[in-house]
């Protein structure tokens, strides 16, 4: 897909760019159970290599990113009948940090892309809050029409955020020097990587089912419903 152009938030605030979601062109024929099993093995291996690494993202930032995702998921329109509540996943966060540390403006690693969804954002200069880096993903809702039509250049960041069965997210942020972004070199950049499971954006599918919130919850869940999510 064609990435959205860089946008400037406000005077003195960073320019933010996003890259088309890695999950945009997935085919539903891929065996999901198999890919999830292999993905868990992959993240377990990453966790071992990160067990002694200092965290590059604060607890406050984790709560802000997770809260933003769940607010977006709870406010979809038309309303969702099967929207799951999203939780933070350390395995996904560690895999995101491993990739972010490469300071490459592309999705990866390639072997993991068939197992998880991934959204990227990069900014030059200062930003007020980490959620400033993901607001452009949410803004894609203006171009998305249920069930799967996009009238803009890209909607896949937003649809990954609101994919009903994607109930885990892990993100990482890294400072990068001389990073190559869209044909130019950014002397200073902040790269945000968010990884998702189970992955969304399956070709031809809607991100969620329309209906009364939580009316399509599985019986095993016990019937609880919070902020239009189960």
- The topology string of helices and strands comes to EEHHEHEHEEHEE
Mean pLDDT: 82
Question: Major sheet, described briefly?
Answer: 6 strands, mixed
Helix/strand-derived category reads: alpha+beta
Distance between the termini: 32 Å
Radius of gyration: 17 Å
Count of helices?
5
CATH architecture label name of the largest domain: 3-Layer(aba) Sandwich
Annotated CATH homologous superfamily of the largest domain: CAP
CATH topology tier name of the largest domain: Pathogenesis-related Protein p14a
Overall tally of domains:
2
What spatial order of strands do you see in the largest sheet?
1-2-4-8-7-3
What is the global morphology? globular
Amount of beta strand = 15-25%
Total number of strands: 8
Low-confidence segments, ≥5 residues, pLDDT <50?
1-14, 23-35, 47-53
CATH top level assignment of the largest domain: Alpha Beta
Helix content: 10-25%
């Amino acid at each position: 897909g064609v990435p959205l152009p860089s946008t400037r938030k406000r005077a003195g605030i960073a320019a933010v760019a996003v890259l088309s979601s890695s999950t945009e062109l997935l085919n539903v024929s891929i065996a999901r159970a198999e890919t999830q099993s292999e993905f868990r093995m992959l993240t377990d291996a990453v966790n071992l290599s990160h067990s002694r690494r200092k965290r590059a993202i604060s607890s406050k930032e984790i709560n802000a990113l997770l809260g933003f995702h769940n607010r977006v998921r709870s406010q979809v329109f038309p309303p969702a009948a099967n929207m799951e509540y999203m939780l933070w996943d350390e395995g996904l966060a560690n895999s995101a940090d491993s990739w972010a540390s490469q300071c490459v403006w592309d999705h990866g690693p390639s072997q993991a892309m068939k197992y998880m969804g991934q959204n990227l954002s990069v900014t030059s200069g200062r930003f007020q809050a980490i959620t400033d880096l993901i607001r452009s993903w949410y803004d894609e809702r203006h171009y998305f029409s249920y069930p799967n039509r996009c009238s803009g250049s890209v909607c896949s960041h937003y649809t990954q955020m609101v994919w009903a069965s994607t109930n885990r997210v892990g993100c990482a942020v890294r400072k990068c020097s001389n990073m190559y972004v869209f044909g130019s070199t950014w002397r200073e950049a902040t790269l945000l990587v968010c990884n998702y499971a189970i992955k969304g954006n399956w070709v031809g599918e809607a991100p969620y089912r329309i209906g009364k919130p939580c009316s399509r919850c599985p019986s095993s869940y016990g019937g609880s419903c919070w902020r239009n999510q189960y």
